[in-house]
């Protein structure tokens, strides 16, 4: 029966790619199916492998190990370098489509250092190999290619570049898995930090929640994600990884984020529609890691929604200007400074900014500064004059005047 893989990718195309790889790298390479069984290849299978396979138990085959390593590569979202039963190295790259595992590209075997007696002695102990058989295996190690770790890393990248775009949607799915795994790593770091610092788990970190909303308002996606992962670490640490409790917190956070996006100027109807969709998706999620990753997507969507409503073709320029303002609002910042940053004449930039945002440059800058001052007033005990200066205002009197204009309260009343 013909492999499902060949119904999606031409057998001739795959064979040509394997032959090209082997001709350039002189490293055996093959295609295996989802069970780890051989489909095609280029380059001779190692004589060491033929010799060693005689000692493997029937329940623990190379095919099973290759299939297992392929699934690990899927979860990593990238090529996976692993050592087989014989302590020989391989690189495996999975071929997937719409979450269906079709098979893999398998390069190897190879060593990353010259073979020595330790390699064989380990196998002798593990598989009860006689002295004569061990000597035979040792002789066969001469035929194994030796590749430096740095070059192995380059070869794994080459496999990704060659095969990632072979099947439509495969690269996106692997990238999704890779980013999901990275987020889990960052959340775990946060959990370990809370454990080491012996944080009071009864006190929810509302300051982090406020900081998350603040970064979303600024459109700073990377900073918002960093705060989110720290916040998720706290939730999972304090509630013993309860999915239902995490979902409840996620729903609350989603509502706060949507309100923040609307307050920041994003179209209300679009945001409410997005929010309803996100809330439905949260209810259907069945694992903690999927919930965490979905929350990251929600944060990114709401952050970007504050900029995506700007009419084209000025979107990119205004977006860059707003990011520049978010990074430098606490300095002496003029319209000329920002116009220079986006390579526009000040008067033209001023007109474009007002048409796109609905506020003048000065009004928008003051709004950003007031948002920062509100955050500092809520979360610190700093004197009001210090908060005024930290937010970009030159004196307390002008700061108080602008603050009352935008909030209806004096800084003291707000605190």
From TrEMBL:
The keyword DNA-binding applies. GO terms for molecular function: DNA-binding transcription factor activity; sequence-specific DNA binding. It holds the Pfam family PocR. The keyword Glycosyltransferase does not apply. PROSITE patterns: HTH_ARAC_FAMILY_1 (PS00041), HTH_ARAC_FAMILY_2 (PS01124). SUPFAM superfamilies: Homeodomain-like (SSF46689). Residues 319-415 form the HTH araC/xylS-type domain. Keywords: DNA-binding, Transcription, Transcription regulation. PANTHER family: ARAC-FAMILY TRANSCRIPTIONAL REGULATOR, HTH-TYPE TRANSCRIPTIONAL ACTIVATOR RHAS. This is Helix-turn-helix protein.
């Amino acid at each position: 029966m013909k492999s499902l893989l060949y119904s999606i990718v031409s057998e001739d195309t795959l064979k040509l790619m394997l032959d090209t790889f082997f001709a350039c790298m002189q490293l055996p390479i093959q295609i295996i199916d989802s069970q780890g069984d051989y489909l095609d290849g280029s380059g001779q299978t190692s004589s060491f492998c033929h010799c060693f396979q005689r000692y493997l138990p029937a329940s623990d085959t190379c095919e099973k190990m290759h299939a297992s390593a392929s699934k690990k590569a899927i979860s990593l979202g990238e090529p996976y370098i692993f050592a087989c039963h014989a302590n020989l190295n391989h690189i495996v790259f999975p071929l997937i489509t719409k979450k269906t595992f079709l098979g893999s590209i398998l390069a190897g075997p190879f060593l990353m250092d010259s073979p020595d007696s330790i390699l064989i002695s380990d196998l002798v102990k593990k598989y009860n190999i006689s002295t004569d058989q061990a000597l035979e295996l040792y002789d066969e190690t001469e035929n194994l290619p030796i590749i430096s770790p740095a070059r192995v890393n380059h070869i794994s990248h080459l496999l990704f570049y060659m095969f990632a775009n072979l099947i439509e949607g495969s690269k996106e799915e692997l990238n999704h898995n890779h980013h999901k795994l990275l987020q889990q790593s960052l959340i775990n770091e946060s959990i370990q930090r809370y454990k080491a610092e012996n944080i009071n788990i009864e006190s929810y970190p509302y300051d982090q929640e406020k900081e998350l909303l603040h970064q979303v308002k600024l459109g700073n996606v990377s900073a918002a994600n960093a705060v989110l992962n720290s916040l998720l670490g706290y939730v999972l640490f304090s509630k013993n990884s309860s999915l239902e409790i995490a979902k409840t917190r996620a729903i609350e956070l989603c509502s706060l984020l949507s309100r923040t996006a609307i307050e920041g100027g994003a179209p209300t109807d679009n945001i409410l529609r997005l929010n309803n969709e996100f809330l439905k998706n949260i209810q259907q999620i069945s694992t903690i890691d999927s919930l965490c990753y979905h929350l990251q997507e929600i944060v990114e969507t709401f952050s970007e929604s504050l900029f995506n409503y700007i009419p084209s073709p000025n979107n990119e320029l205004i977006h860059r200007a707003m990011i520049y303002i978010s990074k430098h609002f606490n300095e002496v910042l003029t319209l000329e400074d920002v116009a220079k940053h986006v390579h526009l004449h000040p008067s033209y930039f001023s007109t474009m900014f007002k048409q796109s945002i609905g506020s003048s440059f000065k009004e928008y800058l003051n709004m950003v500064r007031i948002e920062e001052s509100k955050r500092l007033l809520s979360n610190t005990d700093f004197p009001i004059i210090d908060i005024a200066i930290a937010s970009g205002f030159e004196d307390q009197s002008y700061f108080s005047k602008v603050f009352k204009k935008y909030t209806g309260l004096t800084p003291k009343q707000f605190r």
